[in-house]
TrEMBL record:
Coiled coil (residue ranges): none
Gene3D superfamilies according to UniProt: RutC-like
InterPro entries: RutC-like_sf, YjgF/YER057c/UK114
Protein family: Belongs to the RutC family.
Pfam families membership: Ribonuc_L-PSP
Record lineage: Bacteria, Pseudomonadati, Pseudomonadota, Alphaproteobacteria, Rhodobacterales
Name of the molecule in the record: RidA family protein
UniProt source species: Loktanella gaetbuli
Length: 135
């Protein structure tokens, strides 16, 4: 059974649909998966790639694996939080295209947060998700 999420951009709030996310997501009762922040680490322990673009690609791959593990798709993502060191227009221009590609038209609630540092000195981006697991 497919989950039922209601995505909203009320006229009284900025319309963020064209930017790839929703202001509000209403979730019907069901099982939720809380996916820990994914960083540019691989299951085999390979070195963290250099640069925000390469790290974002690895983070997106990890997010896809997390969804696969719970039997979900991007359409089931309720909320994403994206943490980026040195968050500015350039970082947004680098990170958002692969993230939007991963979302494939899904428009979860989304928050971008600039941070001074992440859990490792070479890490530049971390993304966590809340996912409604399909029945």
């Amino acid at each position: 059974m497919q989950t039922s999420l209601k995505r909203m951009n009320p006229a009284t709030l900025p319309n963020t649909g064209s930017m790839g996310y929703s202001q509000i997501v209403v979730v019907n009762p069901g099982t939720l998966a809380f996916v820990s922040g994914q960083v540019a680490q691989t299951a085999d322990g390979s070195a963290v790639p250099d640069g925000l673009a390469a790290q974002t690609s690895q983070v997106v791959a990890n997010l896809a694996e997390a969804l696969r593990a719970v039997g979900a798709s991007p359409q089931d993502i309720v909320q994403m939080r994206i943490y980026v060191t040195h968050l500015d227009d350039d970082a947004i221009a680098i990170a958002m295209p692969p993230i939007m590609g991963f979302l494939d038209g899904a428009k979860p609630s989304l928050t971008g947060i600039g941070v001074a540092a992440l859990a490792g000195p070479d890490l530049k981006i971390e993304i966590e998700m809340i996912v409604q697991v399909p029945d």
